[in-house]
Amino acid sequence: MSTTCAFNMQLTQIDFSKQQQHLQKVSRTFALTIPLLPEALVDYISNAYLLCRIADTIEDEPNVPTNQKVAWLNSFSMFCANEFSDDMQLLSLHKQAIELVTDGTCLPERELLNDLEGVISRTRSFPHKYKMVLARGVSILSNGMAKSLQGLKINTLDDVDFYCYYVAGVVGELLAALFYEYDNTIDKYSLMALSVSFGEGLQLTNILKDRAEDSQRDVSFLPCENGMNAEETAKYYVKLCQGHLCDAVDFICQLPPNEKGIRIFCLLNVVMATSTLKLISKEDLSGNKKLKISRNMVKFLYLICRIVAKNNFLVKGFFNFLSCGVTCKRRNAKELRDKVSCWEKQVY
Questions:
Q1: C-alpha angle 323/245/181, rounded to 5°?
Q2: Number of CB atoms found within 10 A of residue 4's CB
Q3: In whole angstroms, how large is the CA radius of gyration of the chain?
Q4: By the 8 A CB rule, do 213 and 290 touch?
Q5: pTM above 0.90, yes or no
Q6: Percent of the chain's residues with pLDDT above 70
């Protein structure tokens, strides 16, 4: 028996229940929204999220030299690009990951890294067309994280766009590609054109929400433009963010009405973002507070999403109601994707 075959037999795949337990521990938001999807997509997207979170855990590890994190992320990116197929590389990546994490990483993320082989083994069990989408998306994301660690400077809006692409825009592309593979009646071209802007809207919301924490780390992801002060800069990015969330609503309206689970999943993420953005716009342009919407508000949003999700007119009306008073600046979503996307390009 070959070494590769012997190693394959030793891989223990985590089951669906274990996968969802990891998801609940490392992300409250996605643990809430992913189960709204059709059953098969719950499995694929939960797994994709865990793969992205594994890469993110290594990137954020505070007690490891940057060059070691960059090396691991580049190796993980290449492993994913090769469709998760190299057993010996997987064994090496797992061993290195365990060695890299310290007490600076929270327990749920360390537990996830301990199960890296099991997560990958589950990825390998997926139908080829879905596995290819995960391979592409996670590879680009990991490669982008490595580039960011090597000294990504955020001095202009273009820099913001590229940063947001690597951490969120590519996730929008991954989701769009998975939705198309699940339902080939979807207009893939139109969905992909909006996917990067969708991801950037969610990411900019998080950046605006986390400015106080980032400031404590002496980090800023929102460069001042044309001599604007901090509050003017925040207003500018709130406008841009709202514009991206409008594109996200257009993304949802491209999905077939009968795909209610997919539409509710996307809509709930978008309306939570625009509700947070409205809170920021009213109460925290200075970036001194840690604001988030209440649990009761989340429950309300969920209930209304279930009612309106199948109807484009109601979806847009609900979004407009929630975001009333938030100024908006629309950009060209296709031009944004053409500028930053690596999805159809050679990464290596």
A1: 135
A2: 12
A3: 20
A4: yes
A5: yes
A6: 96
CB distance 309 to 315 below 8 Å: yes
pLDDT tens for 206-239 read: 999 988 787 777 777 888 877 788 888 889 999 9
Backbone angles phi, psi at 342, to 5 degrees: -110, 5
- Of the candidate CATH numbers 1.25.40.10, 3.40.50.300, 1.10.600.10, 1.10.760.10, the domain formed by 152-343 belongs to 1.10.600.10
309, 304, 193: which is closest to 257 by C-alpha? 309
> What is the model's pLDDT at position 348?
63
120 pLDDT more than 70: yes
- State the average pLDDT for the chain: 92
**Chain center to CA of 226:** 30
**Cα 50 off chain centre by:** 11
Q: What values do phi and psi take at 27, rounded to 5?
A: -155, 105
Euclidean distance between CA atoms 186 and 189, whole angstroms? 9
Beta carbons of 275 and 261 less than 8 angstroms apart: no
Please list the alpha-helical segments (H only) found in the chain: 3-10, 16-26, 28-33, 39-60, 66-81, 87-100, 107-114, 116-124, 128-149, 157-164, 170-182, 188-209, 211-216, 230-253, 260-283, 295-308, 312-322, 333-340
- Range(s) for CATH 1.10.600.10 in the chain? 152-343
Interacting residues of 345 by C-beta distance below 8 A, sequence separation 6+: none
